[in-house]
Amino acid sequence: MAKTNPGRFFEDYTVGETIHHAVPRTVSGGERALYHALYPARHALYSSDEFARGCGLPGSPLDDIAAFHVVFGKTVPDISLNALANLGYAEGRWLKPVYAGDTIRSTSEVIGVKQNSNGKSGVVWVRTRGFNQRDEVVIEYCRWAMVRKRDPETPAPEAVIPDLAKVVGPAELVIPEGLDFSNYDFTLAGEPHRCGDYEIGETIDHVDGVTVEEAEHMMATRLWQNTAKVHFDTGSRPDGQRLIYGGHVISMARTLSFNGLANAQIVAGLNGGTHANPYYAGDTIKAWSEVLDKAETPAPGVGAIRLRLVATKGGAPFELKGEDGKYLPHVMLDLDYWALMPV
Amino acid sequence: MAKTNPGRFFEDYTVGETIHHAVPRTVSGGERALYHALYPARHALYSSDEFARGCGLPGSPLDDIAAFHVVFGKTVPDISLNALANLGYAEGRWLKPVYAGDTIRSTSEVIGVKQNSNGKSGVVWVRTRGFNQRDEVVIEYCRWAMVRKRDPETPAPEAVIPDLAKVVGPAELVIPEGLDFSNYDFTLAGEPHRCGDYEIGETIDHVDGVTVEEAEHMMATRLWQNTAKVHFDTGSRPDGQRLIYGGHVISMARTLSFNGLANAQIVAGLNGGTHANPYYAGDTIKAWSEVLDKAETPAPGVGAIRLRLVATKGGAPFELKGEDGKYLPHVMLDLDYWALMPV
Amino acid sequence: MAKTNPGRFFEDYTVGETIHHAVPRTVSGGERALYHALYPARHALYSSDEFARGCGLPGSPLDDIAAFHVVFGKTVPDISLNALANLGYAEGRWLKPVYAGDTIRSTSEVIGVKQNSNGKSGVVWVRTRGFNQRDEVVIEYCRWAMVRKRDPETPAPEAVIPDLAKVVGPAELVIPEGLDFSNYDFTLAGEPHRCGDYEIGETIDHVDGVTVEEAEHMMATRLWQNTAKVHFDTGSRPDGQRLIYGGHVISMARTLSFNGLANAQIVAGLNGGTHANPYYAGDTIKAWSEVLDKAETPAPGVGAIRLRLVATKGGAPFELKGEDGKYLPHVMLDLDYWALMPV
């Protein structure tokens, strides 16, 4: 019996099945420090226990995107080892903050399959949930990927295409228990802009750029125990280049967005996301945002802002797609998320 | 209203004003581990809780220079985003050790301004203080930088040049509460040399060298939430090179100085410092020290030693300035500090 | 008096002497997070406090190989600063897990010396022990290295060659107190294979590869406070290359072996090891294992498996030595160890 994990192929997924992913992970101050070393992370709520307490939380949680990476990384050996492309995200929600000392594990429920017409691959939809040690769901999101078939001759399964929401409704966002922005300290947070200061349609060029090194993206990707060969082994792709984990781009863009969105403290919902183009060491990543929507929340002083976050390598800000409707070649990421912000 | 921070220009500083810097930071064992990964840090007091307890402290504090970086990093968006040069330091003192769990924030009081004769820039002097969550000052130091004017036509402010001490008097050094070197373990510390074994004027070549990589200096600089573009973005300077944060050189030189100064455990005072030449990835940094002075302290077994610490990239040790009185091109740093050492 | 440490030379070692190494180290969650960032570490017992508790331990210890590095790193300034080669290991045992908050120090007893026939160097054998803050031995192992003589004219000491066991007997392995694999969760661990599923002589290709960067191996080596110049300074060797610390290869190979040996959770014994060839940044490391032996242990559900772990840079798996009996040039490491695994 072969002992190593060859990963799952398209025909290994059955709608309704729940996959229990391996390697639970306890997080500590170490993960927080590394997140600050790997990314220009400055949102005050994730940097200071005192600031977080001033916002009604018991202390500073692990950055929401870092928590997402922990949950996501566990799914890679079961979902994306034989994936040809990570196609999209939907219905993502952060349900509980993750604190130092928490232990996270993940499961994925298969919610859809559809074989491609070429018979060589298919699309698999999963709903992934991250749990803490009290079996509380901390994060859930849907994701779909194109996965190779083991054998092109296997008959196609019945297509099941899940009906996923285009956007998480603001009423469905879960506010961390106790969150209160009534006494929010804008000086310590770094910017004066409230939710009310942003207009729907407004765009923000986040100005700063980071040129990425191989050592950095590999350390980040390993930290989340993402094991896909293409990120680590120069021999795994014909061009000899290591592909940067899409989540590295998400973290870099989100932390760069501090400059202009310092008060978009908490990521609460993930409406959608596209990894539009690949990204390699040596590229300089910049980011811009567009305000898509705003909403009220029941928590004191807490508003919600829906943002498009775009990561680029070159080009001018605010460019997204060409006349053909396709992403421009310098656009790497187009993410649609909800953040919580002082009203 | 533009949402991103353009940084302050020379005309934005008023003598007497106190700037409250953003993004407080809680430190943990993660910052300590990263400091040990990024630098050859081996001073026993910052490595071992047991050793620190043997010296009368409650546990091992964050390395003093790391604590300095945390305080300094917060000042960058307000002080040096538009700085042309970081000109000097004076009157630096470490007033309280920083422990895991402490939350640090910084303020800077503007204590001097002087426009340059070209009308395009000026020198700004600030006294920066780092506070912990109990509002105790943990570090204070003066720093001056040359800052661009927004508009050369703005009239020059009245020049105020602060009268800064050339050296912190040994009686002004603050000894951490409880510090006692009476039972100091020289074997575990790594060297037998007491304060009394060093002579004023003595020079020490620290022998070891480190060739620096881009990923390392960027991780270090981000860890302190220093956001100056020139350290991260190859597109931010005409030569396409990322300038290494001067503090990276300070940490590298100080930790290299373990070899010969292993018992200069605690940094207590910063008399002055010059970042003499820029530093880039690929350079190999070495260090040498000169004993400038020695003093007694009231704490049992604790002496003070005043050291010049010089970081170089090439050249011979103990060379500093040329016949023209200027720093030699391979000298990167000339730092003047007080350390606490067993008598 | 010269203040810097020139390291010991062959004539400085006396059989029977115990060297107390400097710079004790307290570990925290930071070291664990960095280990996960620097290596593809996924063994569940070192990743999750909850998983470790399910196996009868009070929490997740520091990875055994990381604990080994902490102990080993302290010996470098006294043992291998003037070493020409690290020749071998024997009689290694992990006696107590290391937990966050523990402080580790090391001693080495000189157990053998033998001058080489060229008169310029000799072999030194030491038995190194790592202690925690309760003076309990956490790790012990023998190691021998070829060390330069200071003066070729010094007469040779009487040769003492220790009689070291070829293999640690399974009865001598120390099982961590409380360890119980009766309720082991194979799903969370990542693979279904029990000790009984492996056959003696079976070989496993661990499939994955990692191309290593300078920044990564330097950060890892510094984290263990290993200060040998050859790892850091491009000027320290005629070829201008930084030699990668042999322990970096051990950690990389051991963590890569997760894929096929996910349940070989705990490293309990080190029978031997050879750093067969040097290793540089840019090399892609892969690993394969061979099952050498299996044994029972008195702990509930806990078996022992003896493994050969081979790290390579190129070549086909399962190749080891050429017809001349020498290691093939692409073999970097040949390690022989005992691991604890569910029966």
Helix-strand blueprint:
Three copies of one chain form a homotrimer.
Chain A: E1 18-20, E2 25-26, H1 29-38, H2 49-54, H3 64-79, E3 83-94, E4 103-115, E5 121-131, E6 137-148, H4 186-189, E7 203-205, E8 210-211, H5 214-223, H6 246-256, H7 258-261, E9 266-275, E10 284-296, E11 302-312, E12 331-342
Antiparallel strand pairs in A: 1-4, 2-4, 3-6, 3-9, 4-5, 5-6, 7-10, 8-10, 9-12, 10-11, 11-12
Protein name (chains A, B, C): MaoC family dehydratase
InterPro entries (chains A, B, C): HotDog_dom_sf (IPR029069), MC_hydratase (IPR048274), MCH/BMMD (IPR052342), Thiol_ester_hydratase_Rv0216 (IPR016790)
GO molecular function, one term (chains A, B, C): lyase activity
Would you kindly provide a written description of the structure presented here, covering whatever features stand out?
The structure is a homotrimer of 343-residue chains. With 343 residues, chain A is of the alpha+beta class. Chain A has a single domain (10-150, 165-342), classed as Thiol Ester Dehydrase, Chain A (Roll), CATH 3.10.129. Helix content of chain A is 18%, strand content 30%. Chain A contains seven helices and twelve strands. Chain A has helices spanning 29-38, 49-54, 64-79, 186-189, 214-223, 246-256, 258-261; strands at 18-20, 25-26, 83-94, 103-115, 121-131, 137-148, 203-205, 210-211, 266-275, 284-296, 302-312, 331-342. In chain A, strands 1, 2, 3, 4, 5, 6, 7, 8, 9, 10, 11 and 12 form a twelve-stranded antiparallel β-sheet that branches. In chain A, a hairpin with a 5-residue loop joins strand 4 and strand 5 (121-131). In chain A, helix 1 (29-38) runs antiparallel to helix 5. The model of chain A has no long low-confidence stretch (mean pLDDT 96). Chains A and C meet through strand 2, helix 1 and helix 5 of A and helix 1, helix 2, helix 4, strand 8 and helix 5 of C.
